[in-house]
Hints:
By secondary structure, this protein is an alpha/beta fold. The protein has five helices and five strands, in the order βαβαβαβααβ.
Amino acid sequence: MSDKFxxxxxxxVSARRALxxxxxxxxxxxGCIVLAHVLEWSPYSFLTPKELEERHKRRREEMTRAxxxxxxxxxxxxxxxxxxxEVVIRYGSIADLLGKIAAEVGAVQIFVGREGxxxxxxRIFGSVAGAxxxxxxxxxxxxx
Length: 144
């Protein structure tokens, strides 16, 4: 069985560098890339049933758009380059879910970029990379 490498991918320049670094490792070891895209989701809000229904509808639409975009561009690019790829899209806490995804798929390593699309939020609330290295079930590589 080939090694699986989870890559936290949000479309940022830093995430792209992490993906390229992981692809080099996967090719060298005959491994597979698990492209993980996590849409931030907070369950802590007080909504009416109608607002909650609308929120879930938007959530499904966002997930569909993300899956179509990643599958039609990044995943196709990797497949064309001969790299086996799986795509996983979830809603929730990014650091928590990257660790859970790695455990679920039996990954041996997680790759993330140092800064994602929410660099300002990371400076205020803490970075995904920082949280991930503290909680990950497998080794993490943070790519600058």
